[in-house]
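Researcher: I'd like a structural prediction for the single chain below. Treat it as a standalone chain; there are no partners to consider.
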Amino acid sequence: MAQVTITLDANLAIDAMLLSGTKNPQDAVELVVRDYLARGRRTETRTGDAGDGHRVATDRPNVQEG
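Model: Treating it as a single chain, here is the predicted structure.
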């Protein structure tokens, strides 16, 4: 897997470490990014995307009275 090196503000790195419960800033950033991506996939699964427009019916069935 390819690796990327990024530079972060120390306070941001510490916040990421505290939120993720890790002692290594590199691991903390990786966990935060993985969680962000997983949340996005869960949201797409739950709400659908632009290609799922065919599932929404614009015509309502007639209500039977009586």
